[in-house]
Amino acid sequence: MVRKKLALTAPICFFWSSVLLASALDPGAAPGKNFDLSSYRLQTFNSSLQVLQVQPIGSYLDPFFFTDSVTGEMVFRVPSGAGHTAHSEYPRVELRQISSWFMTMNPSQPRVQTVKLRVINEPARGGLIFAQVHGEETGGSEALKLRWRQGTIEVGYKEHYGDKESRLVMLRGLSLGDVITCRISVLNADITIEVESETAGSKRTLHYDLPSWRDIPLYFKVGVYSQDDQADGSYGSAAVLELKNAQ
Q1: Alpha-carbon gap, residue 148 to 142, rounded angstroms
Q2: Are 78 and 93 within 8 A, CB to CB?
Q3: CA gap 139, 162 in Å, rounded
Q4: Contacts of 78 (CB under 8 A, 6+ apart)
Q5: Could you tell me which of 61, 69, 68, 118 has the C-alpha nearest to residue 93?
Q6: Which residue in 6, 114, 203, 232 has a CA-CA distance of 20 to 30 Å to 23?
Q7: pLDDT one-digit tens code per residue, 53-64
Q8: Domains plus CATH for the chain?
Q9: What is the helix (H) or strand (E) element at residue 26, kind and residue range?
Q10: How does residue 133 score in pLDDT terms, banded at 50, 70 and 90?
């Protein structure tokens, strides 16, 4: 197999001309009433901090997935060292698309996930992952991850299925509570990531090896995937202001 060279666009400052307009969020409503979550299922925790799957989400809420009582934002809160799935050592509270799709050439339109959020709290160790393009297969099908660690946003990616993850810095110098808009667009064998804060932005296009990925079902994820597996009393949390998928 010939390994394709990764091509990147240089980081740039930009502001999108098309702004997602969200209806007013109701602080008294469950997340599933403020946001259209019908295409997602939720992974959260039960009262024993073990993994709980919720579908449909409807008006569900709990101490780890709830609505901010002032802003109406959708909050994900993950205690460090809580329960995890069989193929991970880290805890998470995340939304994942119910239906999967494939990386393919010449689709009718790109698949896009746009999320506007604030990272509220960082776990004591390892930071957190807040958005992903993930695969149904075990053993290395995480095509893309967006990570937050101490005010830096990195993109992690695997050009080939099963590769060791490579990482690139998107933005630095952010603070907890900053509003960040992230757009992930999958078209052909490319994934383009745009990340914008109130003061700066960055854009990267990653080229993937299509023969390696074409048979792997993929889906978007958003939430908090803590990278702290120790029960140290800390937690990771993020609040989502807007969430939109296309195709």
Answers
A1: 17
A2: yes
A3: 6
A4: 64, 91, 92, 93, 123, 128, 224, 225, 226, 235, 236, 237
A5: 61
A6: 203
A7: 999 999 999 999
A8: 31-227 (2.60.120.200)
A9: none
A10: very high
